């Protein structure tokens, strides 16, 4: 890898997965420790003025965007300002920007898979903030890759998977929507995609733009829960036997979470040659890491 790569968010689950995967191929990252209050516009200005990397992978707010149950408006607003500044700095210093985004930019009203050409219409504050950040990056920093991911699953104790497994140990009844669909995506697979994109950009390929990626085989949250519980029993005793079906509209997060969140991944395949991997294959390793940590 000829480019000097800076990773913001090297301490979170996706950042750690990217560092692990890079190490296997002798690819290293500058992964600066964030200030106590987290990365903001002023600290990012100082950082990039001093370091001048060739590419920035912005995973600084990964947990809030992909794993947190909710994020307050003030925190999202601060993150928006930071991404705006980061985008301006990358353009000023001629740095490539890899910026993650999410299926949450769509409202989930259509049952067919969303492509990059479909018009975003986010439901909740998190999706709306991500959509505004996407628009700013496009307008400010032409040399960017926006990666919209499906349902990201990681091994953090307080992430989406961790909260579900924690409840499964204590509660005998768990409700999951049987009419909500998406692409489960283990964090190691998402890291593979980011690294594959970086390798091609390192070859001076100007493949800028927006791309979708989600694990192979779209499914419902109910089916995903059934598979996760089946695999988790190899590691731990659970109180719940099977999750119970519930309509998407009856779920407490129905106002924020798209009912149909399946992403079409043809563009990333045709442009970068990145083939989607089956999410089921990645679950055992993910659960093994999770149970070793808790």
Percent in helix: 40-55%
Q: CATH top level? A: Alpha Beta
CATH architecture grouping: 3-Layer(aba) Sandwich
Number of domains: 1
Per the CATH scheme, the topology name is Rossmann fold
- Specify the structural class: alpha/beta
Low-confidence stretches: none
Oligomer: single chain
Order of helices and strands: EHHEHHEHEEHEEEHEEHEEHH
Strand order of the largest sheet: 1-2-3-4-9
Q: Main β-sheet: number of strands, strand sense, barrel status? A: 5 strands, parallel
Strand content: 5-15%
Describe the 3D structure.
It is an enzyme of class 1 (oxidoreductase). Keywords: NADP, Oxidoreductase. The protein has a single domain, classed as NAD(P)-binding Rossmann-like Domain (Rossmann fold), CATH 3.40.50.720. 43% of the residues lie in helices and 15% in strands. It contains 10 helices and 12 strands. Helix 1 (13-24) packs across helix 7, helix 2 packs parallel to helix 4 and helix 8 crosses helix 10 (279-293). The longest helix is centred in the first third of the chain and has 20 residues, at 73-92. It is globular, with a radius of gyration of 19 Å. The mean pLDDT is 96.
């Amino acid at each position: 890898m000829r480019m000097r790569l800076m990773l913001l968010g090297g301490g979170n689950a996706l950042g750690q997965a990217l560092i692990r995967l890079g190490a296997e191929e002798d690819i290293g990252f500058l992964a600066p420790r964030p200030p106590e209050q987290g990365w903001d516009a002023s600290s990012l200005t100082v950082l990039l003025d001093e370091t001048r990397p060739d590419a920035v992978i912005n995973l600084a707010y990964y947990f809030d965007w992909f794993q947190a149950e909710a994020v307050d408006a003030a925190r999202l607003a601060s993150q928006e300002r930071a991404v705006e500044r980061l985008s301006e700095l990358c353009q000023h210093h001629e740095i490539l920007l890899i910026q993650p985004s999410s299926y949450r930019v769509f409202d989930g009203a259509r049952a067919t898979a969303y492509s990059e050409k479909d018009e975003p219409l986010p439901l909740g504050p998190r999706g709306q903030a991500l959509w505004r950040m996407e628009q700013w990056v496009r307008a400010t920093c032409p040399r960017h890759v926006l990666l919209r991911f499906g349902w990201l699953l990681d091994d953090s104790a307080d992430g989406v998977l961790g909260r579900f497994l924690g409840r499964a140990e204590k509660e005998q009844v768990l409700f999951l929507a049987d009419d909500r669909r998406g692409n489960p995506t283990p964090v190691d697979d998402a890291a593979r995609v980011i690294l594959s994109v970086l390798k091609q950009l390192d070859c001076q390929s100007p493949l800028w733009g927006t791309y979708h990626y989600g694990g192979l085989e779209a499914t419902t949250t109910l089916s995903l829960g059934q598979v996760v519980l089946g695999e988790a029993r190899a590691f731990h005793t659970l109180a719940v036997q099977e999750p119970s079906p519930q309509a998407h509209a009856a779920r407490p997060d129905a106002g924020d979470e798209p009912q149909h969140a399946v992403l079409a991944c043809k563009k990333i395949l045709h442009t970068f040659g990145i083939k989607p991997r089956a999410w089921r294959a990645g679950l055992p390793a993910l659960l093994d890491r999770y149970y070793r940590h808790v």
